[in-house]
Design goal:
By secondary structure, this protein is α/β, with parallel strands linked by helices. It has one domain: Thiamin diphosphate (ThDP)-binding fold, Pyr/PP domains (Rossmann fold), CATH 3.40.50.970. An eight-stranded mixed sheet has the order 2-1-3-4-6-5-7-8, with helices on both faces. α1 packs across α7 and α3 packs parallel to α5. The radius of gyration is 18 Å and the shape is globular. It starts with about 20 loop residues before the first helix and ends with a helix.
């Protein structure tokens, strides 16, 4: 179980400029509650840059800096190497980036960290588009979701970040959701304790980009899991554990029905999404089971 006996509360300012209902802010607060003060954070330009602040102001009470969009993992690797050179094995090096800065622009430097086995904890908060620069589609944007660059809906599915990480055979990788904070915190603790690189891929509802009422963030995160749009599992020492399995998937409408980014879909397109999600979910569960 994660340890919160250290002075970890209050490492994030009481007031930050995140959008109302932002899932990313909830992730940052809970992650740092587990990791504590002995953490150095690397943040790229993006939504999470609001935590870096500017000038002499910041929203975090831990050291860190903001790099470029493509090199978060490389910056983390450099910090880790410097700490190692000083004999410091205890400080957690945390890379905290969105899907655009991870599955698209940052995938090369992330792959390097995973391949070299650098002891870096990499968190991708996935809000499924480039939210900070105008809600453009990323390769993590789901099938048929509307963005400013896919106004009629994205025509392809999302890139599988977890399987990319697992292909590097790293010690620990896991998906998580703000719908289940206990599960999230346990996985953060496991990632922190990992001797080598670890990756957490966290589903992060965005009221601004997904166009829903901010009060529904947790409800939507829960619906993503219950409809099969987000699967909770972890890869640890070569073994896969499915953390939550719905006995029967709920209708996709219970997830996309609240979101304006799916608001222009026809009845036929909604049926197509339902068939796509059901097929992908069943195929993915079989794949995960076969990995043990």
């Amino acid at each position: 179980m994660y340890d919160v006996q250290h002075n970890s509360r209050g490492l994030v300012s009481h007031g930050v400029s995140a959008c109302a209902g932002c899932g990313m802010e909830l992730i940052m607060r809970n992650v740092l509650e587990v990791l504590g003060e002995d953490t150095i954070i690397l943040i790229p330009p993006g939504c999470s840059a609001l935590f870096s602040g500017f000038g002499n102001e910041t929203a975090l009470k831990i050291p860190g800096f903001q790099g470029n969009l493509e090199n978060t993992a490389a910056c983390a690797a450099g910090v880790r190497a410097a700490l190692n050179a000083k004999g410091n094995k205890h400080t957690t090096v945390l890379a905290f980036a969105g899907d655009g800065g991870t599955v698209d622009i940052g995938i090369q430097s992330l792959s390097g960290v995973l391949e070299r086995r650098d002891k870096v904890l990499y968190i991708c908060y996935d809000n499924e588009a480039y939210m900070n620069t105008g809600i453009q589609a990323s390769s993590s944007t789901p099938y048929f979701a509307g963005t400013t660059t896919t106004p009629s809906g994205k025509k392809t599915g999302r890139k599988d970040l977890m399987q990319i990480a697992i292909a590097h055979d790293i010690p620990y990788a896991a998906t998580a959701s703000i719908n289940n904070l206990n599960d999230l915190k346990k996985k953060v603790q496991k990632a922190k304790d990992t001797d080598g690189p670890s990756l957490l891929h966290i589903h992060t509802p965005c009221p601004t980009g997904w166009r829903y009422e901010p009060a529904k963030t947790i409800e939507i995160a829960r619906a993503a899991v219950q409809t099969g749009c987000w699967i909770l599992y972890e890869y640890e020492a070569g073994k896969v554990t499915i953390n939550y399995r719905q006995k029967e998937l709920k209708p996709i409408e219970e997830y996309i029905g609240f979101q304006g980014r799916f608001g222009n879909l026809s009845k036929e397109q909604k049926k197509e999404i339902q068939d796509y999600v059901t097929k992908q979910y069943n195929k993915y569960i079989i794949k995960l089971e076969a990995m043990n």
